[in-house]
């Protein structure tokens, strides 16, 4: 594991989640949550050095929804900004990398989704190979079932739980990052990101070993996920908890899992891990997953400096 | 002030026209002609569907290999709620199928009416569509042999 | 070469249709805007920080990044800040036709509308215009309620009043 040029900490976060947001659009959902996170450390958007978000326009059925969402941050005067068509946790990894360059000391990372407006199982199939897979419109739940069965057939996991319906939830999460002394200035309880790495596997399901998560294992090694006190795992279906625990070698630690809204749930795991260990001196691992059958995985190691 | 928020049906519909590239083109040409075509990877494995680049080394791949339209289920799941656009309009199984002569598996629908009729290791054979046009949907579904 | 049927060549192109259905909601602010249109009114929202009025309102000031909720009713009159004359036919439109950016009186953002009941050669920056609505019985929650804008008998606006919107 490589060390950082500059230490980066999660200094604040806020989240909102509901099974189905009946009325507000993405901007209206984001505004109070971003303002909550900024307010926790007394920052205004103008003081944020880098802004980056994760979302997928297909989930809201609104092309360039990620551009519209910028209304929630006030992009004037023009801001440094980036967007990933992925879970917000991967946007956080980009922010950590950006902060290493040393031009800015703070970053705002947010994610949003409103998949309740469509049929999530169908929507997610557009991320599959467009030539030989997507024309079959495979539902996300059915693909996860292939993974669960491959785990059963491997005989390595004992009882493998059945696949549940794909979780549909709407929500937003915002996280504020700061480097070194700036983080210590903003809060008495910064949660330091000691390691973060993400890996992707082949898109063709038939090329992958669905009975294990090679990308989680490598990302865990890259992030230095050892000596862990608590785990906050992003799993979309119950069987995936077994895969992630196996890949990260988690056995005795308390494990807290959640799916969360698609594209938001991973960032929410990192935020929740940070909230839980802030000021405790504990070391936590948090994960995020994206893509069919956990194609892409991110692992972050967080340390809550003792208060 | 609370007012009823407006809701409208909204459909996103677009037909992408894609160039296939030589190897996916060979696979789709094969389907049109009633054959299943894979390719030989850098390590000698036969990859189905054929791909343009080796999944490990990224080398250009160019050697096509025809495989059988029959093979073995390597994993499967039950779909009790078929969705719009899926290969069958009644409950069916999704499966990864390793065709005879191939070293990787292909995602397909298996037309069985009950999950008790399929398992990992089941032998299945392609049922071809009546009209083949050069699309993955030229395989209507697989059937348990 | 004769026109007899040949063996089809290799597949090089594939069509992959996407079809996704949604129950779309425009959000709280835009729902209010559309409800106002259904009553034959144009409403905007004022930013509590910079005081700019947005039409259509989107629930936020995109400059300040703060929520907006003060409703502002507009008159439906405005000023052309820039325009273009199109000579190419478009569905439902006979060329030449004029499309203009209009700054509605009392708002701080321009919107695009058609200009009709006017010779395209006479359209100019600063020209005063008003909205022409569909019949009251045809009002629906849709911006299509405004068929187009037409000139009104008022002196042109001074350049200074709209120069920031050109
Ligand atoms: Zn403002």
Strand order of the largest sheet of chain C: 9-8-7-10-11
Order of helices and strands of chain C: EHEEEEEEEEEEH
Q: Which sheet architecture does the biggest sheet of chain C show?
A: 5 strands, antiparallel
Strand order of the largest sheet of chain A: 3-2-4-5-1-6-10-9-7-8
Number of strands of chain A: 10
Shape of chain C: globular
Assembly state of the chains shown: heterotrimer
Structural class estimated from helices and strands of chain C? mainly beta
Average pLDDT of chain C = 93
CATH level-3 fold name of the largest domain in chain A? Peroxisomal Thiolase, Chain A, domain 1
Biggest interface and residues each: A-B, 34 and 40 residues
Bound molecules: zinc ion
CATH topology (fold) name of the largest domain in chain C: OB fold (Dihydrolipoamide Acetyltransferase, E2P)
Give a count of the beta strands of chain C, DSSP E runs of length 2 or more.
Answer: 11
Summary tags:
heterotrimer; A: 307 residues; alpha/beta; Peroxisomal Thiolase, Chain A, domain 1; 2 domains; ten-stranded mixed sheet; 10 helices; globular; B: 145 residues; mainly beta; five-stranded antiparallel sheet; three-stranded antiparallel sheet; 8% helix; 40% strand; binds zinc ion
Structure characterization notes:
The complex is a heterotrimer of chains A (307), B (145) and C (166). Chain A contains 10 helices and 10 strands. By secondary structure, chain A is an alpha/beta fold. The two termini of chain A are 27 Å apart. The mean pLDDT of chain A is 96. Chain A has helices spanning 26-40, 57-60, 65-68, 88-100, 120-123, 140-154, 180-186, 214-223, 239-248, 265-277, and strands spanning 8-18, 50-54, 81-84, 106-113, 170-179, 191-200, 230-234, 255-258, 283-290, 296-304. The longest helix of chain B has 11 residues, at 22-32. Chain B starts with 7 loop residues before the first strand and ends with a strand. Chain C is mostly beta strands. Chain C is globular. The mean pLDDT of chain C is 93. At the B-C interface, β1 and α1 of B face β1 and α1 of C. β1 of chain B pairs antiparallel with β1 (13-24) of chain C. Bound molecules: zinc ion. Residues 47, 49-50, 52, 61, 63-64 of chain C line the site of zinc ion (ZN). Zinc ion binds at residues 47, 49-50, 52, 61, 63-64 of chain C.
